[in-house]
Amino acid sequence: MKIGDLSTASATPIETIRFYEREGLLPAPGRTQGNFRVYEAPHLERLQFIRYCRGLDMSLDEVRVLLRFKDAPTEDCGDVNALLDEHIGHVSKRIKELRVLEKELKQLRLRCGESRQADQCGILTGLEEASQEHGVSSAEHPSSHLRSVHKH
């Protein structure tokens, strides 16, 4: 299949497929006489595996480790267990951070019970005060909801 077909079959954007190839997660496909990439069923299966792991918020490095073991099926899987245990720890920590975030947001929401002019809004005032108090970007804030469970 061509890259567009692989993209459709896996619900993965073409640029993501090319990125995974550049990162060495997806092996380079064969080429036709016209130099078009030709993907096989194993490419689709591997891509689906990668996407599922990424959906579990696993880092590219974690996915690389898992793929290494998938490619060496007779190896001991103790490192896979350790990897998953560590990932579970990251997720547990993130859940705690999200609970703190939820509490902060609920407290902020209580600051404005009814609709009023924006310059009188308790939520906007609270956000302004907090941003001045913390003096950090949202990426550095401990409860930044845009961050994955991994720091890098």
Strand and helix layout:
Blueprint: H1 3-10, H2 14-22, E1 30-31, E2 37-38, H3 41-55, H4 60-71, H5 78-109, H6 122-134
Antiparallel strand pairs: 1-2
Architecture overview:
The protein is mainly α and 152 residues long. The protein has a domain at 3-55: Multidrug-efflux Transporter Regulator, Chain: A, Domain 2, CATH 1.10.1660.10. The chain has six helices and two strands; from the N terminus they run ααββαααα. The chain has helices at 3-10, 14-22, 41-55, 60-71, 78-109, 122-134, and strands at 30-31, 37-38. A two-stranded antiparallel sheet has the order 1-2. β1 and β2 form a beta hairpin. The protein is elongated, with a radius of gyration of 22 Å. The two termini are 34 Å apart.
Radius of gyration: 22 Å
Distance between the amino and carboxyl termini? 34 Å
Give the overall average pLDDT: 88
* Approximate helicity band: 55-70%
* CATH architecture tag of the domain at 3-55: Orthogonal Bundle
List the helices and strands in order: HHEEHHHH
- Tell me how many strands there are: 2
Shape call: elongated
Strand content: under 5%
Q: Strand order, main sheet: write it out.
A: 1-2
* CATH topology grouping of the domain at 3-55: Multidrug-efflux Transporter Regulator, Chain: A, Domain 2
- Secondary structural class: mainly alpha
Total helical elements:
6
Unreliable spans: 142-146
Tell me the quaternary state.
single chain
Largest sheet: number of strands, sense, barrel closure: 2 strands, antiparallel
User: So what's the CATH class of the domain at 3-55?
Assistant: Mainly Alpha
